[in-house]
Amino acid sequence: MDTEYSVETNERLNLLLAKFGLAIDMVASIRQEVKIQMLKYNFDTMIWEWIHLGALDVLCAMRSKYDVKQFADFYSRVMEIAQLPLTVTYPQSKHGDIQK
Fold first, then answer.
1. Looking at the DSSP assignment, which residues form a beta bridge with residue 98?
2. What is the H or E stretch that residue 32 is in?
3. 8 Å CB contact between 45 and 66
4. Collapsing DSSP states into helix, strand and coil, what is residue 99?
């Protein structure tokens, strides 16, 4: 959330997500949807996590934003992404090392 990526890192990340079927516009939309709540969840609660926030954290953060029906829809979308197969080939950086 507070990490700045280089253009190359962002391009590799977009390629990796695309291999899971997550288009750039879809990723941007999801990021926009959760941005404010994730900032509140991470910093207002004093968690200050900068290494990993996962699906459970996103669900916890978004629960207070949505009513029951909206949250059920959001939960379904999160679970669809969480259940994507993990069999992808990771893109290599220009230095030849594999970036996971």
1. 92
2. helix 24-39
3. no
4. coil
